[in-house]
Amino acid sequence: MNHKPSLAVVGATGAVGAVMLQILSQHKDVWGEIRLVASPRSAGRKLAVRGEETEVVALSEEALTGMDVALFLVPADVAAHWAPVAAAKGTVVVDNSAAFRLDPDVPLVVPEINPHAMRVRPRGIVASPGCTTLAMIVAIGALHAEFGVDELVVSAYQAVSGAGQIGVEALRSQLALVADTELGTNPGDIRRAVGDGIGPFPAPMALNVVPWSGMLAEDGWSSEELAIRAETRKVLDLPELRVSATCVRVPVVTTHSVSVHARFEHEVSVERAHEILATSPGVVLCDDPATDEYPTPADVVGTDPTWVGRVRRNLDDSRGLELFVCGDNLRKGAALNTAQIAEAIAETLGGTRNGTLGGGTLKAVDGSVDGSAGRSGGVLAGEC
Fold this sequence. Notes:
Shape: globular
Low-confidence stretches: 351-383
Largest sheet: 6 strands, parallel
């Protein structure tokens, strides 16, 4: 008799962990035991999952023992140490951090695009892409299947929650500081007013945009921009794809937006692009500028899909499309994609614990289009 596989949620008390517990409570119940794991200082707390209060245990080898699948929703350095420990015990690891995304022996998976990639796991680990890549990749993958993508030029407008709760707190405190003032009308006045309250950003976020995210890399690129390039190539299995990204931090709490110029191998039309996007799992087409219908972070936050609008054919290139996409960086950009991978793996385990997939067919798990079901009820922020 087959039993439901067991699941460890490592980082259950964090921001992405909180969203994950909501998702596990809302999705089809495919899990047996769910073990909540966090740092020793969080051990003993009780969190609700599937309608039951569950006690959090401290991260240790013992906590990872006997689990079929483990979700790692922790910083990269923690995942780099503990994910191999779990995998060595026969647990299939799904990691949300950047620790293994570009490891050639770790598949980088978006279930709507490349679910087959998770079949081969030399290290027993499957990685989930970064939140900005996930904001656009489902839509781009759908268009690529029809037209063959040849080049991407993207500008990412990143919410402050991508920098963690400290980023959210910095923005909110700065907004309170500038409210009902004339700040923002003279050079440097906001920076002087904010002073040491700048938070994790190189410039004030209130009434401002900051063209930087990540760490300095070669030739003036940021690590975040290079990650978008590398992750997109890996997910689409196009190692030579031309990708150029610019990351801009904007005064939005949660939900990343991306302006995309996509050039394809074949001629494109808006009508066909609309058909593809409107019928693609995990995508919502919202595109009628005549009636002010297009996605914005304020409308998309708390929902699962990638929302797409402003679809236009390039004026100078019949193979070029311009589009604007929005995606909640804590849901599809973090917890949801990780959950979808784990659920697809659960279908194949058949109640046995081993490091490779058993019999069965992997199926993509669609994100819910019902935004009301996915609302977090509060500000949740975390590294993504």
